[in-house]
Input
Amino acid sequence: MIILNRYKVVDMNKFKRFMFISILLISMVLFTLLFTIKVYSKDIPQYNYITVEEGDTIWSIASNYVDKSNMEIRELVYVISNENSIYNASIYPGDVIKIPMNVE
Output
C-alpha cells in the first residue's frame, strides 16, 4: 500500500495498530478537553461589582438584578448579603458590593 505516493507501508499490521492507537489517543484527548471545559465553566463564579450610592439599600440593589436571575427578590437579597458578609443590612455610600451573576 502506498500513501500519498510518498510512503510505502511494509507491514500492514503495524500500520493498522499505529492508526488505531493514534485515533484512540486523539479521541481520548478531545473527550477529556470537551468535558473538562463544560465542568469548569459552571463552577466559576461571576460577579458584577457596584459602588453603593446615597440612598441605596440591599433591597433596591437586588431589585435591579432580580430580572437577570431566576430568583425572587428575597432570595437575591439573602445571597447578596451572604456573599458580602452583610449581616445587619447596613451599607454605606462608597462601599463596593459584589452581585453574583450566575446564581441558580
In short: Helices lie at 12-43, 58-65, 73-83.
